[in-house]
Amino acid sequence: MFVIYSNFLTGQFDDSNNYYWTKIGFIIGLLISSIYFLYNELRQMKSLKWDYFEQFWNYADLLPPILIPVICAFHLNEIIYPDQYEIPAWLISIHAVCSFLLWVKFLYFLRIFKITGYLINMLSNVLWDMKIFLFILTIVIIAFGEAFLRLSHPTTNIKDLDNESEPLLPNYAAALFFAFGLTLGESSGDHYPDTMQPITNYIFSVLASLYINIVMLNLLIAIISKSFDRITEDEESANY
């Protein structure tokens, strides 16, 4: 219901009376279903106590019934007062997170089928086994991001032309995203000739490509292979 509401009834139709009451009906249905699912989650929370928060899937069950009423409340104000009310920008992020969690919850339901449950179980176990790898990868990305940020200052000619002295990577976040792009093979060095130390930029770019795309990638493959063997062995043992 929320997927239909999000994709077909939020700004993609004209504001006629028919769609007006359709939106109201969907909002009422979403509020009722959210209260029902939230009540079930609170009962589980009361029964399991702190053990409830140890399972990742419980967060995918708990957050949507909380976020959906918030989204519906703002949308309801926009529907009732279209000329006097505007949805805040941050609600778009809340809406995106809620939609993502609902599809994650759909993956959780696929665990009840034998043909898909095995893959979902493998996915969750592989992600858990990758936690140390992701920590190390984050440090590597920060290290190269710091280096590229220091090396992103433009040459004197570029400064004179633009009357600015800002680096070509304007902030820390841009440098981290640039370093993260190197992990995906996006080795775009078009701005290197415009920096004060282009040769050093090229050297760090080669080092990042070798270390991240070759060493770290093969380490990731080894971790996934190990997890796959362990999960397959456990499944075979459970059949006996």
Write the layout of secondary structure elements.
Elements: H1 2-8, H2 17-48, H3 56-80, H4 90-109, H5 114-129, H6 131-150, H7 156-162, H8 172-183, H9 198-238
Helix pairs in contact: 2-3, 3-4, 5-9, 6-8, 6-9
Explain what you see.
It contains nine helices and no strands. The chain starts with a helix and ends with a helix. It has 240 residues and is an all-alpha fold. The longest helix has 41 residues, at 198-238. 75% of the residues lie in helices and 0% in strands. The chain folds into two domains: 2-112; 131-238.
Summarize the main sheet.
Answer: none
Summarize the helix and strand pattern as letters: HHHHHHHHH
How many beta-strand runs?
A: 0
**Residues in β-strands, percent:** under 5%
Shape: flat
> Helix proportion of residues, in percent?
over 70%
Radius of gyration: 25 Å
| Amino- and carboxy-terminal Cα gap | 42 Å
Low-confidence spans: 158-163
Mean of residue pLDDT values: 78
Number of helices: 9
Estimated structural class:
mainly alpha
When the domains are counted, the total is 2
